[in-house]
């Protein structure tokens, strides 16, 4: 990688929090998905969101990247406080994500899928890009060079030209991560990056996530069910249950927490 | 740039690099696909990198005569390592990248490596885990920095940094620069240019030392033989530590001045092959077999028209393709049809395989099935066979263009002197012949005859057209009572080329005649039986079916017929055979884990059958204990029929086609 990462160094920031969630509530009709949750994501950390099914983890990610609009509360990103951010804005301001059930363009090659991640960074308009002339071509070459570094980083050279839809699940997940990385995000949201993977694929993915965090300094918030993975990967863990935050702390602290054990093992109601 | 060394002194690889840098400095010497692009280095860049690298290695203390390990896949910087190490008069020792740490530890220690140059973190970790066992190892260099940022920099440097440091010193310290130039200029042809470890299937690996001038002489002779020039191109994807890669790609490229291209990764070789379109290619038979299987599967899924085209034109190719390739006379109509086939089928197929530009392709290592061999040749691929070994620095025999036989490995390679010893063993003297086994004078003496020939350990003979045929390991070759030569593996291989025969075990050493036990291939024979409405309830029933016996009797007769055409082996035709009622199985010790038959064990286990083969009975009773996969034991018993095989009169030298 020759040392120069695809992620630019962070500029001077007023706070060591990259993002703060402040008393956020979200409901769908009568269903309260998130109830008054607050936490923050610190710059450079790997934060895990865990909790039983329906605890509101994915909804929380969706609020963060502007997919859902919370009815109450605020989200402060890079020192700027707002009720909601549109997904487009979130993306252009450095928030990238992957999805629980892979959301690639099935009919495009792995390479084209990853190039899509660069699209926001392209300066030339649609017409220029369609013509692939002069400045647009030069620009595409630059972006391609960066994408190739990501391909090298995630070791997916062999499937560069393969159609995304024909790839095995584990590789699709990796292509999706590549696409998110292509955005050079400051905050990377990963929704169950290891779901449905075998042990070897999980180990690979863990290594990639740690490398992204360490080499590019990318802040990562991830949802994961595999507790072994969570304990190995994350600096801090937030536990949600029925839309509420029930615990927060280092993996070890959380593991010993009474409420967390109850939420996972179940108690008589 | 220093003056070019005189031609007669081109007997070290570093001097060859300087020679090419002067002759064809702007030609591409190496390519590597990296970050999606084919990166290129010209001969002058290569020369400059070699100098800088040699200087860098000298700065970390590599001295004349010391050994430097090279571990990794085919990457330009690892090839430069050979050159930089040689430039200092030190000895490069390539090692297999997939070797486990323990094996590496043995070789690192045995060769006494002071520096190891490795590809990536995986290899770094392996070598670091061996620190206690390799006290001589002073330094570790790596190519790929990924994942290595937290490692101790005192012991670990990148190749790039080493070259940079060397360059910087060369630029500022003229005395040092002169010392490096002198080191290159004073390298000796009789010096060791590389140490290649044999794979060690029997006992510990042995380090085979190759002298620089001999290596270059050998490469020069085959470069001339195959008319390789600086316009050729090879994809180097075979293990660096294997003599085949070091000779065919590295040494031949250094002599002829052609470019070697390194694939992006092991998984992308097939795509890289297609992109780069090499003109010189080597692959073991297994690779050709896998490719054919893939083609067959893809064709089964193709549309009907394409399938029809493929089948129709492959029939044409089978009939005329090889004759056209060998420049023989064929009817005009056939030539036109073949031309049309090239347009519609052969050329697109070769393109898909990355074979479009191949002028010369070799295969070696094991016997290649005649049909497999013909398939590629009929497409117009100039596929030839060679026979060689590490001790010869590869070539012992090879086939020249147009003189190709599927079951022979060619005439002696240029300047190679071959003789067949009393016991049938092939012995040779060759230009590239090894100097010795490292630190093993007694083993070196064992491998040589008193008059300076190398013993290959293989038994063989020259056929009517003067090509060598390897029949077996010399120690496995026996004689019948009549003193006729008996080569069990040779006969077994011939039988196994029939898809219906899965395994064959030949007996005959010290006996009156040759007898065989056969295993049917259940899926092939099963499908055949289905087509003929033959009813069977089990493997055992199918194996005992008279029609199956008839079919296999036909195969045995064909094998005998080909044996009858070979004067050396015509007296050892198969006289009697039987079909075993069960499949030979590695779990029961009948095969080795690498699927080789264990003849002695089988002879004991099936003793009643073996007795019956030789006492003339028509059937034999067998009862053996078998172990099922779940560990239960059972008994297999039954009558096994024994057949007489059709034997052909020896047709001495007439029909040697």
Keywords:
heterodimer; A: 269 residues; alpha/beta; Rossmann fold; four-stranded antiparallel sheet; 10 helices; 10 strands; 37% helix; disordered N terminus; B: Luciferase, domain 3; 4 domains; five-stranded parallel sheet; 21 helices; 22% strand; disordered C terminus
- Gross morphology of chain B is globular
Integer-rounded radius of gyration of chain B: 28 Å
Quick one: CATH superfamily of the largest domain in chain A?
A: P-loop containing nucleotide triphosphate hydrolases
Instruction: Tell me, briefly, the overall form of chain A.
Output: globular
Count of runs of 4 or more consecutive helical residues of chain B: 21
**Number of beta-strand segments of chain A:** 10
Strands in their spatial order, largest beta sheet of chain A:
6-7-8-3-9-10
What's the CATH architecture of the largest domain in chain B?
Answer: 3-Layer(aba) Sandwich
Oligomer classification: heterodimer
Estimate the mean pLDDT confidence of chain A: 85
Largest sheet of chain A: 6 strands, mixed
Q: In CATH, what is the class of the largest domain in chain B?
A: Alpha Beta
Judged by helices, strands and strand pairing, the structural class of chain B is alpha/beta
Q: Which two chains share the most extensive interface?
A: A-B, 16 and 13 residues
């Amino acid at each position: 990688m020759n040392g120069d990462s695809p992620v630019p160094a962070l500029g001077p920031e007023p706070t060591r929090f990259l993002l703060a969630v402040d008393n956020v509530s979200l409901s769908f009709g009568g269903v309260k998905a998130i109830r008054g949750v607050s936490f923050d994501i610190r710059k450079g950390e790997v934060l895990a969101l865990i909790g039983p099914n329906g605890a509101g983890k994915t909804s929380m990610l969706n609020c963060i990247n502007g997919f859902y609009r919370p009815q109450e509360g605020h989200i402060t990103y890079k020192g700027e406080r707002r009720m909601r951010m549109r997904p487009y804005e979130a993306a252009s301001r450095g928030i990238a994500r992957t999805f629980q059930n892979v959301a690639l363009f099935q009919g495009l090659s792995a390479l084209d899928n990853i190039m899509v991640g660069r699209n926001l960074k392209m300066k030339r308009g649609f017409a220029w890009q369609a013509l692939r002339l002069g400045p647009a071509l030069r620009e595409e070459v630059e972006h391609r060079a960066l994408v190739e570094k990501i391909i090298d980083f995630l070791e997916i050279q062999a499937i560069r030209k393969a159609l995304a839809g024909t790839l095995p699940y584990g590789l699709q997940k990796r292509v999706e991560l590549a696409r998110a990385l292509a955005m050079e995000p400051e905050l990377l949201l990963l929704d169950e990056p290891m779901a449905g993977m075998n042990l070897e694929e999980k180990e690979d993915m863990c290594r990639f996530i740690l490398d992204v965090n360490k080499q590019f300094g990318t802040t990562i918030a991830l949802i994961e069910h595999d507790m072994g993975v969570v304990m190995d990967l994350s600096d801090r863990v937030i536990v949600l249950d029925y839309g509420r935050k029930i615990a927060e702390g280092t993996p070890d602290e959380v593991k010993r927490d009474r409420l967390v054990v109850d939420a996972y093992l179940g108690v008589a109601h | 740039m220093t003056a070019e060394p005189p031609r007669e002194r081109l007997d070290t690889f570093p001097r060859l690099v300087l020679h090419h840098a002067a002759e064809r400095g702007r030609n591409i010497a190496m390519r590597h696909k990296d970050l999606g692009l084919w990166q290129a280095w010209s001969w002058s860049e290569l020369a400059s990198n070699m100098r800088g690298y040699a200087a860098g290695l000298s700065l970390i203390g590599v001295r004349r005569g010391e050994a430097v390990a090279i571990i990794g896949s085919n990457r330009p910087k690892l090839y430069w390592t050979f050159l930089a190490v040689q430039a200092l008069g030190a000895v490069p020792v390539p090692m297999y990248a997939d070797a486990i740490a323990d094996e590496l530890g043995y070789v690192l220690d045995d060769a006494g490596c002071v520096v190891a140059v490795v590809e990536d973190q995986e290899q770094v970790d392996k070598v670091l885990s061996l620190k206690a066992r390799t006290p001589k190892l002073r330094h570790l260099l790596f190519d790929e920095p990924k994942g290595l940022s937290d490692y101790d920099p005192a012991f670990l440097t990148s190749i790039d940094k080493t070259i940079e440091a060397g360059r910087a010193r060369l630029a500022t310290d003229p005395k040092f620069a002169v010392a490096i130039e002198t080191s290159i200029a004073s390298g000796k042809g009789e010096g060791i240019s590389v140490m290649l470890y044999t794979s060690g299937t029997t006992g510990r690996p042995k380090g085979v030392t190759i002298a620089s001038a001999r290596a270059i002489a050998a490469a020069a002779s085959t470069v001339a033989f195959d008319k390789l020039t600086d316009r050729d191109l090879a994809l180097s994807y075979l293990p660096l530590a294997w003599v085949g890669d070091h000779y065919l790609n590295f040494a031949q490229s250094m002599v002829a001045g052609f470019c070697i291209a390194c694939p992006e990764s092991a998984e992308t070789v097939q795509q890289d092959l297609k992109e780069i379109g090499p003109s010189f290619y080597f692959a073991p038979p297994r690779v050709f077999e896998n490719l054919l299987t893939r083609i067959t599967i893809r064709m089964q899924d193709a549309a009907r028209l394409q399938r029809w085209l493929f089948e129709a034109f492959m029939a044409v190719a089978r009939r005329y393709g090889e004759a056209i390739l060998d420049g023989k006379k064929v009817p005009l109509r056939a030539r036109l049809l073949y031309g049309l086939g090239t347009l519609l089928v052969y050329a697109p197929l070769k393109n898909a395989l990355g074979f479009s530009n191949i002028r010369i392709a070799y295969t070696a290592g094991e016997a290649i099935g005649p049909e497999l061999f013909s398939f590629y040749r009929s497409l117009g691929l100039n596929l030839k066979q060679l026979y060689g070994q590490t001790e010869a620095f590869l070539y012992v025999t090879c086939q020249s263009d147009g003189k190709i036989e599927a079951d022979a490995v060619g005439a002696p390679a240029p300047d190679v002197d071959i003789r067949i010893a009393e016991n049938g063993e092939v012995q040779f003297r060759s230009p590239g012949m090894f100097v010795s086994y490292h630190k093993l004078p007694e083993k070196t003496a064992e491998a040589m005859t008193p008059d300076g020939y190398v013993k290959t350990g293989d038994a063989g003979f020259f056929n009517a057209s003067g090509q060598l045929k390897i029949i077996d390991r010399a120690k496995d070759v026996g004689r019948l009572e009549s003193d006729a030569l008996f080569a069990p593996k040779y006969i077994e291989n011939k039988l196994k080329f029939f898809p219906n025969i899965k395994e064959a075990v030949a007996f005959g050493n010290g006996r009156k005649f040759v007898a065989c036990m056969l295993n049917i291939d259940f899926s092939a024979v099963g499908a055949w039986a289905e087509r003929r409405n033959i009813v069977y309830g089990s493997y055992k029933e199918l194996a005992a079916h008279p029609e199956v016996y008839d079919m296999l009797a036909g195969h045995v007769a064909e094998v005998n017929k080909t044996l009858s055409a070979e004067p050396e082996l015509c007296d050892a035709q198969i006289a009697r055979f039987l079909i075993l009622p069960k499949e030979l199985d590695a779990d029961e010790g009948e095969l080795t884990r690498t699927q080789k038959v264990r003849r002695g064990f089988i002879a004991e286990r099936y003793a009643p059958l073996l007795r019956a083969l030789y006492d003339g009975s028509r059937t034999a009773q067998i009862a053996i204990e078998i172990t099922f996969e779940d560990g239960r034991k059972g008994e297999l018993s039954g009558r096994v029929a024994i057949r007489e095989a059709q034997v052909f009169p020896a047709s001495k030298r007439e029909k040697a086609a």
